[in-house]
């Protein structure tokens, strides 16, 4: 059995490795031009729309993109076009708690509040929207992240929102949804440092060279 001091050292080393990789990935993303981001985003949107897991899913959670993420507008429009149900994150600041709340239409996005993190999300006092796990659960979650490796390991932004939410999903009668990460090819790493509680992604979509 490992001694507590060794556990602490290992945790510190993992934290440092993640921090260093986040810095490197942010540099890569800053160097990526707007036109290239749009090109890769459109390519992935087409791949998503033709994906069997997407086609068979009825209740889908998807992130509203920040500037350094794959742009998801086309996918969101198609979710509504196909008559599927769309859920988006509401992050609770200073915690690792996130809910997935129902979006009524693609146009509904314009009614959302811009947070201090520059993310659009339903406001804290918006209690009318269905939370996915209070109803039928989710079939599919599209996941953001800073970096990924080909084994399905994901490096998030360090808050643990998605790992914590997936733990809640596992306790829901419908079980864990299928997870697909959307990434620029510049976000694919040789190896992502992970802890035991970091949840792997089922599939990562990115442009293969």
Distance between the termini: 44 Å
Estimate the strand proportion.
15-25%
Structural class: alpha/beta
The helix content is 25-40%
Shape call: globular
Task: Give the rounded overall mean pLDDT.
Answer: 92
Number of strands: 11
Order of helices and strands: HHHEHEEEEEEEHEEE
Strand order of the largest sheet: 3-2-1-6-9-11
The largest sheet is: 6 strands, mixed
Number of alpha- plus pi-helical segments: 5
Poorly predicted regions are none
Alpha carbon gyration radius: 17 Å
Write the layout of secondary structure elements.
Layout: H1 4-30, H2 34-49, H3 52-56, E1 59-61, H4 73-81, E2 85-91, E3 98-103, E4 113-114, E5 120-121, E6 140-143, E7 147-149, E8 154-155, H5 161-170, E9 178-182, E10 188-189, E11 203-205
Parallel strand pairs: 1-2, 1-6, 6-9, 7-10, 9-11
Antiparallel strand pairs: 2-3, 4-5, 7-8
Task: Describe the protein.
With 209 residues, the protein is α/β, with parallel strands linked by helices. It is 32% helix and 19% strand. It has a six-stranded mixed β-sheet. The chain has a three-stranded mixed β-sheet with strand order 8-7-10, with helices on one face. The radius of gyration is 17 Å and the shape is globular. The model has no long low-confidence stretch (mean pLDDT 92).
